[in-house]
TrEMBL record:
Gene Ontology, cellular component aspect: protein-DNA complex
InterPro entries: LysR_HTH_N, LysR_subst-bd, WH-like_DNA-bd_sf, WH_DNA-bd_sf
Name of this protein: LysR family transcriptional regulator
Domain HTH lysR-type: 1-58
CDD domains: PBP2_OxyR
UniProt entry tagged with the keyword Transcription regulation: yes
Species of origin: Halalkalibaculum roseum
Similarity remark: Belongs to the LysR transcriptional regulatory family.
Keywords, in A-Z order: Activator, DNA-binding, Transcription, Transcription regulation
Length: 312
């Protein structure tokens, strides 16, 4: 029995598909399947029911997987303890980050972080909040970057910055003539939203509920998408409006910004971006370096906590 075999078992349990598990484990499917078969033969059991699609663990397989996760977690902790004795930061650092933060934040600090800490291997996984928390629970991730509070006693949370919401309005929209938006404007129809599961969608809905609950179900939800870029393109083709996170403006060209981008007047709605990790975590030195690099890269106006309306 090896740690590699156990990691393959956990991967198949997560993705419920051998090919996907192999891809995520950076091996070929035959290699992954062979190692799991070897483990099953060694133990004299069947871990996965391969007759079903997607594959599912057997009853004894569920127990094996639970123990495998704990063994892998402890093995990572041993590696972390060993790295504590080293002067420079090194090792693998796995980061979960939600889709409405990742494309806008990562380009700001990745280059400087990798130049300062060349021996730290960063692995990013872009997932929605609920899945991120599950992966953190399993110790598949070292830290997460999210935009909603966590009410779990074993998860530690530190604030990073406060990000305002921006309006992105089509030129044919009633709000296009306004220089600045107010929260009251969000009772207007044709507000495009992300799909269920995205916290940015939930925050947008909460923001709208502050104004007109009666309009929310009847007229505001006209179209839903899995990513903000699709919603931006709809607006640019003169369909409705949407909300964007502040850092998204860095990726909007000057012409589109002038035509579609609208800031909010005071009180400005904003979300709190935070980094989360296990309270027992040992990679505190890397976490601090990671957090500091983010804080050095973001605009100063995002570090002000006392302004605006916080939307959780």
């Amino acid at each position: 029995m090896t740690l590699t075999q156990l990691s393959y078992v956990v991967a198949v349990d997560r993705y419920r598909h051998f090919a996907t598990a192999a891809e995520k484990s950076y091996v070929t499917q035959p290699t992954l399947s062979m190692q799991i078969h070897k483990l099953e033969d060694e133990l004299g059991i069947t871990i996965f029911d391969r007759s079903k699609s997607p594959v599912v663990p057997t009853e004894i397989g569920e127990k094996i997987i639970k123990e495998a996760k704990e063994i892998l977690k402890q093995s990572k902790h041993i590696e972390d303890i060993a790295h504590l004795a080293e002067d420079e930061l090194q090792g693998t650092f796995r980061v979960g980050i939600i889709p409405t933060i990742a494309p806008y934040l990562l380009p700001l600090f990745l280059r400087s972080f990798t130049e300062k800490y060349p021996n730290v291997k960063l692995i990013f996984e872009e997932v929605v909040t609920n899945e991120l928390l599950s992966l953190l629970e399993q110790d598949h991730l070292d830290v997460g970057i999210i935009a909603t509070p966590v009410e779990q006693g074993h998860i530690f949370e530190e604030e990073l910055y406060y990000e305002p919401f921006l309006g992105y309005v089509s030129q044919k929209h009633d709000l296009a003539k306004k220089d600045k938006l107010s929260i009251d404007d969000l009772e207007i129809t044709n507000l495009w939203l992300l799909n269920e599961g995205h916290c940015f969608r939930d925050q947008t809905v909460k923001l709208c509920k502050k104004q007109r609950k009666d309009l929310l179900d009847s007229s505001m939800i006209e179209f839903e998408s899995g990513n903000l870029e699709t919603l931006k393109q709809l607006v640019e083709q003169d369909f409705g409006m949407t909300l964007l996170p502040y850092l998204a403006k860095n990726q909007i060209d000057e012409q589109c910004a002038k035509a579609h981008l609208r800031y909010f007047e005071d009180p400005v709605p904003r979300r709190k971006i935070r980094v989360i990790y296990s309270r027992e975590y040992l990679k505190q030195n890397i976490i601090e370096a990671f957090k500091n690099e983010i804080l050095e890269s973001i605009p100063e106006e995002l570090k002000k906590s006392e302004e605006g309306v916080l939307v959780e």
